Amino acid sequence: MSTFTIGRFIYKEHKETFGQRLKRIRKAKGFTQTALAKKVGVDPQYIHLYESGKYRPSLQMFEWICEALDVSASELLGF
User: Fold this and answer.
1) What is the pTM of this model?
2) Residue 72: which residues within 8 A CB-CB, separation 6 or more?
3) Residue 7 and residue 13 in contact, taking contact as beta carbons nearer than 8 Å
4) Per-residue pLDDT reduced to its tens digit, 5-53
């Protein structure tokens, strides 16, 4: 089990990492990395970095991603 932070909050990951969950939900909602990036106003490389686990989104970016994907924070965090 690993931990990660979004903003000042610390979360524990279980079977599926945040990046894996983001990728799964993004694909299920029919978004490419480019389309999601455009909707939240970032370069597509950032979505790739979030999904690969190399970067973590800021709290504000996390909120924008949830809104763009029409999912709750809990769902995207795996709760």
Assistant:
1) 0.80
2) 66
3) no
4) 777 766 665 678 899 999 999 999 999 999 999 999 999 999 999 999 9
